[in-house]
Amino acid sequence: MIKKLSSVLLLAGMLAGTTMTSTLSFAQGKADKLGWKLGAQAYTFNRFTLAQALDKMDSVGVQYVECYNGQTIGNGIEGKFDWRMDAAKQAQVKALLKAKKKKLVAYGVVSPASEQEWEEVFKFAKAMGIQVITAEPKREHWDAVSRLCDKYQIKVAIHDHPKPSHYWHPDSVLVAIKGRSKLFGACADIGHWVRSGMEPVECIKQLKGHVLHLHFKDLNEKSPDAHDVIWGNGVCNMPAVLAELKAQNFKGMFSVEYEYNWDNSVPDVKECVKFWWQEVGKL
């Protein structure tokens, strides 16, 4: 009887694994067709080195990376990740990413102080193979940023921190990018919109055709003090956001940015990743 029960449980586990693998494969096919990538903003693991963060990304099943300024690199590489890294340090970081089987897609959020600094940031992004710079540019730099986007063929996605940030509302992003490069658009942080009292789906609609990148998160409540929760358990209406992005033919990366339970967020992030794949499979 015990042997029979063990066999049943083993078979159930095998079937569950097969079903999960099949579901993931189906969702991956959909994501590829949509041009969607799921990655993580390294800030999710800012209590750890970049090397450790890459390992944590591996454990939750994401391969695409958005780095940020100031994270200790680790793995025997001195210093912090920053656009000011020299060529030798850049080569070390690229080797680290390759060894960890991760692809650096995005970088930010940055706010360079001058047009010269903007040029240096773009040169750095080009050297590192970065496709998207998430940023909050100063008004006087909008034209320069647009020109540099075209020159280097790198996207700049304006990020929305909550009120009183200049870019908290989609209208301010639209003003900044109007009449400028098609590579100059929005980084939609849907959680910050909720903190500012707005509905993510409506904000995505306002930015139709201009969303280049996302900081994806779900929150426990609609308030400035809200905190992250496992995706699908909060108030951000993620299925509707995904449906709207599909309708707009969005192509790009979703960065997991989980800013809660900092020291032990891997189990939560893993559930977020699972939710994303399940929802993509339904589209």
From TrEMBL:
Ranges for domain Xylose isomerase-like TIM barrel: 58-265
Pfam families in the record: AP_endonuc_2 (PF01261)
Secretion signal span: 1-27
Key words, A-Z: Isomerase, Signal
InterPro entries: IolE/XylAMocC-like, Xyl_isomerase-like_sf, Xyl_isomerase-like_TIM-brl
Single GO molecular function: isomerase activity
SUPFAM superfamilies named in the record: Xylose isomerase-like (SSF51658)
Keyword Signal attached: yes
PANTHER family hit by this protein: HYDROXYPYRUVATE ISOMERASE, INOSOSE DEHYDRATASE
Protein name: Sugar phosphate isomerase/epimerase
